């Protein structure tokens, strides 16, 4: 009788095991880093765009641009490999910090066909930047990097180039995220530019936590001021040190820079965190 009961239950037992195994595989697939999974997928999706350049032939386009990065655009890790972008990818400043691979510049004889990676640091509001679905107004340095060595000047004189581009993960060689405090900040008003986010590069939201909060869950939402600059107009005195929570735009991944803005912080100063997305 026991043997008969075993064989009648065996199919059900096997079914349960199969369901558990499938469930485990399903959970495993969604435990993967969503940022890496999404960006690797997007990086294979190539689109067409136009490309021009501005500024000096070996420069960074402009001194900081509409994203608010200031002089850092010409310094490592940006190193002048930056771009202004049309409205479709600028996204009212939410596209600031995103990285793109601009390659397949093949229709001009001076194109090297080698990949060039750039970061959005500026906005291109008119002219060719309003034509087509996307347009990259590259720095002179980035535009020249697409050329065959020795033919940079010929490529710069080509006018509007037709290129192919793809969204890629930002990689700053493990450099941590930095926070540049706006010179207009004070005890009641705090504004900061967020720099060097690896992975997605762009931000959906930024929140601030004061030292005086009673719970780790008490965060104050900051508002996008312009470009990569985020502000909190508290209306009363803020109490440092401040922790800052970042949520990326593309993957919605959250990261916390604990007590990154110290007691005695200064307007105009830059404070480096111990964290980054990769």
From TrEMBL:
InterPro entries membership: Expan_Lol_pI, Expansin/allergen_DPBB_dom, Expansin_CBD, Expansin_CBD_sf, LolPI, RlpA-like_DPBB, RlpA-like_sf
- Locate the Expansin-like CBD domain: which residues? 188-273
Q: Which residues form the signal peptide?
A: none
PROSITE patterns documented for this protein: EXPANSIN_CBD (PS50843), EXPANSIN_EG45 (PS50842)
Keywords noted in UniProt: Membrane, Secreted, Transmembrane, Transmembrane helix
- Major localization class: secreted
The residues covered by the Expansin-like EG45 domain are 64-175
**Where is the protein situated, by its record's location annotation?**
Secreted
Checking Pfam families in the record gives: DPBB_1 (PF03330), Expansin_C (PF01357)
Q: Which GO terms describe its cellular component?
A: extracellular region
Instruction: Spell out the CDD domains in the cross-references.
Output: DPBB_EXPB_N
Residue ranges crossing the lipid bilayer per the database entry: 6-26
Q: What's the family? A: Belongs to the expansin family.
The name this protein goes by in its record: Major pollen allergen Lol pI
Q: Which organism is this protein's natural source?
A: Macleaya cordata
């Amino acid at each position: 009788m026991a043997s008969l009961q075993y064989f009648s239950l065996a199919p059900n037992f096997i079914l349960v095991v199969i369901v558990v195994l499938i469930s485990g595989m399903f959970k495993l697939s969604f435990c993967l880093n969503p940022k890496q999974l999404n960006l690797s997928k997007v990086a294979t999706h190539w689109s067409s765009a136009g490309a021009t350049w501005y500024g000096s032939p070996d420069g960074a386009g402009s001194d900081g641009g509409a994203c608010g990065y200031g002089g850092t655009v010409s310094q490592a890790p940006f190193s002048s490999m930056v771009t202004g972008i049309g409205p479709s990818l600028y996204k009212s400043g939410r596209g600031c910090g995103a990285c793109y691979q601009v390659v397949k510049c093949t229709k001009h004889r001076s194109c090297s066909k080698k990949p060039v990676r750039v970061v959005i640091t500026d906005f291109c509001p008119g002219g060719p930047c309003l034509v087509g679905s996307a347009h990259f107004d590259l720095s002179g340095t980035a535009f020249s990097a697409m050329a065959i060595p020795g033919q940079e000047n010929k490529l710069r004189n080509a006018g509007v180039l037709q290129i192919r581009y793809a969204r890629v993960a930002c990689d700053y060689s493990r450099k941590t995220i930095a926070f540049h405090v706006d010179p207009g900040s004070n005890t009641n008003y705090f504004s900061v530019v967020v720099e060097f986010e690896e992975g997605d590069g762009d931000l959906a939201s930024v929140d601030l936590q004061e030292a005086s909060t009673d719970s780790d869950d008490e965060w104050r939402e900051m508002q996008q001021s312009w470009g990569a600059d985020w502000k909190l107009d508290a209306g009363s005195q803020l109490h440092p040190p401040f922790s800052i929570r970042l949520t990326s735009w593309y993957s919605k991944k959250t990261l916390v820079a604990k007590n990154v803005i110290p007691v005695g912080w200064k307007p105009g100063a830059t404070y480096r965190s111990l964290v980054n997305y990769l």
